[in-house]
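Ticket #4471: structure export looks truncated?
Reporter: QA, pipeline team
Priority: medium

Steps to reproduce: submit the single chain below to the structure queue and open the exported record.
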Amino acid sequence: MIIDSATLDPTSAYKLLIGSIIPRAIGWVSTVSVDGVPNLAPISFFTAVGRKPPMISLSLQPRADGVTLKDTFVNIRGTGEFVTHLATLPQADAMHRTAAEFDPGVDEFDAVGLEKERCEVVRPPRVKGAPIAMECRVERIITIGDLNDHVVFGEVVRFHIRDDIYLDRGRIDTNALPAVGRLAAEYTAVENAFTTPLDGDILGARHGRRVSRLDARPTDWSPIDGDAWSPSGSVRS
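Actual output as written to the record:
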């Protein structure tokens, strides 16, 4: 199948992108509005982009209506600050519930029952219990395309690393972290690690095998086929 991207509408292009770029890291992002209301939402167009200074990026689309800017972006633009957290399995459900489109005056921490912790140098609170958090200040914001999408570049000014996963020589014990990644519209748990080459028997045993599901749904099921999914990363109620 060869698809000319010029023939695609935004929703079709989004489906191909999120199904082709997997697994994606999730930036669980806390912000605060100019009026002081905390916000929390997962962003899966998220990656590291620089080392000195350490820099990350977030790409944000509008809400499910395709027009209204997400509270996360409005808050980042208004205050110049945000915090990203590593999403792990124990908090995966709470993280998913923060993807719902709450009204701007709603504190998502309270709405999903999460405790806050103070940051060192930025105003947004951290998620208590998250093993890694990064306090960030905006370095630049770039508008992408003609659909009001934006890329935010943020300088990491503080790392919060749980003591037991911070190893000698500054390494993080990644094998101790039940990290959660994003597939097309679902999640995946990071449960194995390897270096290449792998033994041929291992590769042969896995050839053609479909990914196993932890939620007992059929292996060909996807949220994209349901009414709750939207081409914005948000979850419709």
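Status: closed, not a bug. The export was complete when the record was re-opened. Leaving a note from the reviewer for reference: The mean pLDDT is 96.
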